[in-house]
Amino acid sequence: MKELTHAVILDDHRLFADSFALLLQRFGAFDVVSSFSKADEFFDFLQSFGNQKLYVFLDYYLPETNGLSLLSDIKRINRQAKIIFITSAIAPNVIRNILQYRPNGILSKSAGIQDLVKCVETVEGGRAYVDPQFEPFLIQRSERTATLTPREIELLKYFAQGNSIAETAAKTFLSPHTVVAHRRKMMAKANVQTIAQMLTYARDNELI
């Protein structure tokens, strides 16, 4: 297939990021492949790269946040970016939460090289790609599914680390009132009564 210029990887596991970069280079679809394990370095690259065609392979699980929280910033900086999630998540709730944000593709970290090839070819053809092992999640429904926003998941991670409302507000540059409102809303979505129950729910469903 024709070369697709530039691909970039963001995964906080350096070994995986570099290994995946080598795989993409061997694949031969891209002129240049860059890999990053830290979000700030990734965004420095994105700012300097400009609004050019770019494939972004984005990990879902990132320190103190998840890839969903970065989507809007990536699209704001580069509207041509094709965003493909690469994830080790297997919980249906997590996969459905990712798909709700309509990335260009989602690929399991356990996928083979043929799945990777098909993913890139599908996205390049203008269609969204969903890893075959995730397709049943498009049909299955769970009465207990709660779709949380990237901001809600970010706040949950701070709560899980033992931060108070005031500490979480300071770290996220929100007012305590806004943090409380987010907490109340996510608890209503999950139909739980306490933040401890909310954290248990989030862990059980691999949201944090």
Notes on the structure:
With 208 residues, the protein is α/β, with parallel strands linked by helices. The protein has 2 domains: 6-139, 3-Layer(aba) Sandwich (Rossmann fold); 150-204, Winged helix-like DNA-binding domain superfamily/Winged helix DNA-binding domain (Arc Repressor Mutant, subunit A, Orthogonal Bundle). It has helices at 14-27, 39-49, 71-77, 92-100, 113-124, 136-139, 150-160, 165-172, 176-190, 195-204; strands at residues 6-10, 32-36, 54-59, 61-62, 65-66, 81-87, 105-108, 129-130. A 6-stranded parallel β-sheet has the order 2-1-3-6-7-8, sandwiched between helices. The longest helix has 15 residues, at 176-190. 35% of the residues are buried.
Provide a quick synopsis of the model:
Residues 141-206 form the HTH luxR-type domain. This protein has helices spanning 14-27, 39-49, 71-77, 92-100, 113-124, 136-139, 150-160, 165-172, 176-190, 195-204; strands spanning 6-10, 32-36, 54-59, 61-62, 65-66, 81-87, 105-108, 129-130. It is of the alpha/beta class and 208 residues long.
